[in-house]
């Protein structure tokens, strides 16, 4: 099966649309159960060490039997990403414009950040193009409704920035149980000598990443009506 057909089948599975059936005995597991097993393995060992053989072994299947559920590791990772992201939390869905929308947008970003923390491998999954999976679109849709309350000029740009912030700041938090990263004694001095402006920022206390995330979100939302295009080209 070529990559385009695999992609189409995977998207149909994610959207709950009918896919061509596979001949043979009744499957022992659902695709959701296979995906959950793969997510648990990635949570414990990381995505790089995940193989179809390991997933199959966890379920008591042969690797060949696993192909009844997923055609490739790439397709499995797509299913895992959608399941790990999950559905967005319930936010204040009031369509009325007014104060308070910034706090809701900040809560949205923090909730997405937490999903990345719950699944440390998730931030490392490469994203290509605009989201096309239902859960990711549900997150985006819920945030756009919030930004509409703030009468934001270009809500999609703001939504994409907040989505990227959640991912980027999650990468600053070491996974649970990860060994402390030893920084060579000479490295801070080398950074200060070559990149003094960056070194000044790195001297800040970054232990409370959630607080830093809140500051970054507040910075983006401080001028949501600002037209960034001319400013970038000025």
From TrEMBL:
SUPFAM superfamilies found in the cross-reference section: Homeodomain-like, Tetracyclin repressor-like, C-terminal domain
Annotated DNA-binding residue span(s): 51-70
Signal peptide region: none
Keywords per UniProt: DNA-binding, Transcription, Transcription regulation
Keyword DNA repair among record annotations: no
Transmembrane segments: none
All copies of domain HTH tetR-type, residue ranges: 28-88
Matches recorded under InterPro entries: DNA-bd_HTH_TetR-type_CS (IPR023772), Homeodomain-like_sf (IPR009057), HTH-type_TetR-like_transc_reg (IPR050109), HTH_TetR (IPR001647), Repressor_TetR_C (IPR004111), Tet_transcr_reg_TetR-rel_C_sf (IPR036271)
Lineage top rank: taxon: Bacteria
The name this protein goes by in its record: AcrR family transcriptional regulator
Organism: Arthrobacter stackebrandtii
Upper lineage: Bacteria, Bacillati, Actinomycetota, Actinomycetes, Micrococcales
């Amino acid at each position: 099966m070529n990559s385009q057909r695999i992609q189409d089948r995977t998207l149909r599975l994610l959207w709950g649309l009918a896919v061509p059936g596979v001949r043979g005995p009744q499957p022992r597991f659902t695709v959701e159960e296979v995906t959950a097993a793969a997510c648990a393995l990635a949570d414990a060992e990381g995505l790089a060490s995940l193989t179809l053989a390991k997933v199959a072994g966890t379920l008591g299947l042969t690797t060949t039997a696993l192909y009844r559920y997923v055609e490739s590791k790439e397709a499995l990772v797509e299913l895992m990403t959608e399941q790990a992201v999950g559905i967005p939390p319930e936010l204040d869905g009031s369509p009325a414009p007014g104060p308070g929308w910034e706090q809701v947008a900040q809560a949205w970003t923090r909730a997405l950040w937490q999903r990345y923390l719950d699944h440390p491998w998730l931030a490392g999954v490469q994203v290509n193009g605009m989201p096309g999976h239902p859960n990711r679109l549900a997150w985006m849709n819920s945030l756009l409704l919030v930004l509409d309350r703030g009468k934001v000029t270009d809500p999609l740009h703001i939504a994409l920035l907040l989505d990227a912030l959640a991912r980027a700041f999650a990468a600053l938090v070491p996974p649970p149980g990860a060994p402390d990263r030893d920084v060579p004694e000479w490295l801070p001095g080398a950074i200060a000598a070559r990149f003094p402006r960056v070194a000044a920022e790195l001297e800040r206390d970054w232990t409370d990443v959630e607080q830093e995330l809140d500051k970054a979100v507040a910075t983006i939302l401080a001028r949501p009506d600002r037209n960034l295009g001319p400013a970038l080209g000025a």
